[in-house]
Amino acid sequence: MASTIPLYQLDVFAPRLFAGNPAAVCPLPAWLPDAVMQQIAAENNLAETAFFAPDQTGEADFLLRWFTPTVEVDLCGHATLAGGHVLLDLLGFPGSRVRFRTLQAGILQVERGEGGLWLDLPARPAMPRAEIPAGLPEALGAQPVRVLEHGGIWLVVYDSARTIEGLPVDFAALRRLPARAVCVTAPGRRNSEDFVSRFFAPNMGIDEDPATGSAHCLLMPYWAQRIGRTQLAAAQLSKRGAVLSCRLEGDRVWMTGPVLPYMSGTITLPD
After folding, report:
1. CB 152 within 8 A of CB 71
2. Cβ-count burial of 247 within 10 angstroms (0-12 exposed, 13-18 middle, 19+ buried)?
3. Is residue 262 within 8 Å of residue 12, measured between CB atoms?
4. 112: Cβ–Cβ under 8 A, 6 or more apart, which residues?
5. Which residue in the list 43, 48, 111, 114 is annotated as catalytic?
6. What's 204-264 look like in SS3?
7. Which architecture does CATH list for 127-250?
8. How many Cβ atoms are within 10 Å of 122's Cβ, its own excluded?
9. Mapping DSSP to helix (H, G, I), strand (E, B) and coil, where does residue 72 land?
10. DSSP-assigned letters across all residues of 12-58
11. CA-CA distances (angstroms) from residue 176 to 2, 66, 127, 185, 198?
């Protein structure tokens, strides 16, 4: 007899449907085997599939994990916000806040606030690299101003949003570099937009991520210091496009953006 799992798909940080970053969310009564969750994520073929299950320890409301089509990751912003939306807005979880316990990122929370649901993530300040890594300008197609790094993610700074919009990225070359992912960023294009970014992660099975909440854990400390404000408006210049409102509070980054349900259904697994 087959077992079934609910499946929700939502567009996150999406100014309209079919924009932002699609995330799949699977509520579970308890963890499935890791290999099965990885297979589900591969079958979904989205940037991330989030799985949550009740936290029996009482430290948080739910346990939370994220998988790309090829690997489990240590932090994912948009799929966490999607999980909060499923619980608070679709499944009737009581109250205005849900707390998730994660394997490597600690306790994360999604709560109702001004303008919608806000996601709380750890700030991850990037440190300047002494030199621009060899091969990086060629892989991206343009010479950056500077490069910073946190946890194997390279934060690559340019002077112009137009430059990063038109980068002729060589993903095969990026794959050969010793970086988990590369986030490019530049000042915003208009007064209502403080900074812009794009995020490339071919070594994690995602050539370009449409909207990356976790990247803003690096972006916000950098731009808050550079601009001199802790509340900033951001856009991710992927083909789908994404918008985020962010604020830096000490060692935490809060962010919000539209979450639009796209599809719900059922996964059928053999016993």
Report:
1. no
2. middle
3. no
4. 88, 96, 97, 118
5. 48
6. HCEEEECCCCCCHHHHHHHHHHHHCCCEEEEEECCCCCEEEEEEEECCEEEEECCEEEEEE
7. Roll (3.10)
8. 14
9. strand
10. ES-SSTT-SEEEEEEE-SSPPPHHHHHHHHHHHTSSEEEEEEE-TTS
11. 42, 24, 22, 21, 19
Q: Are 216 and 194 in contact (CB under 8 A)?
A: no
Which tens digit of pLDDT belongs to each residue from 123-175? 999 999 999 999 999 999 999 999 999 999 999 999 999 999 999 999 999 99
Show the tokens assigned to 111. 């709560």
Contact 98, 87 (CB under 8 A): yes
- Euclidean distance between CA atoms 137 and 207, whole angstroms: 17
Burial of 155 (0-12, 13-18, 19+ CB in 10 A): buried
Residue 69 has phi, psi (to 5 degrees) of: -60, -15
C-alpha to C-alpha distance for 195 and 190, rounded to whole angstroms: 9
Q: Where are the domains of the chain?
A: 3-121+256-269, 127-250
- Convert the pLDDT of each residue in 223-265 to its tens digit: 999 999 999 999 999 999 999 999 999 999 999 999 999 999 9
Q: Torsion angle, CA of 137/141/142/143, rounded to 10 degrees?
A: 10
Domain 3-121+256-269 sits in CATH 3.10.310.10: yes
Phi-psi region for residue 203, left (φ > 0), alpha (ψ -120 to 50) or beta?
alpha
pLDDT at 2: 65
**Is 138 labeled as catalytic in the residue annotation?**
no
Residue 257: φ, ψ to 5° = 180, 165
Per the listing, tokens 């490069």 go with 147
Rounded Cα distance, 153 and 250, in Å: 21
Query: In the numeric block, which tokens belong to residue 67?
Result: 């998988």
Place of tokens 């989030």: 50
Does the reported pTM lie above 0.90? yes
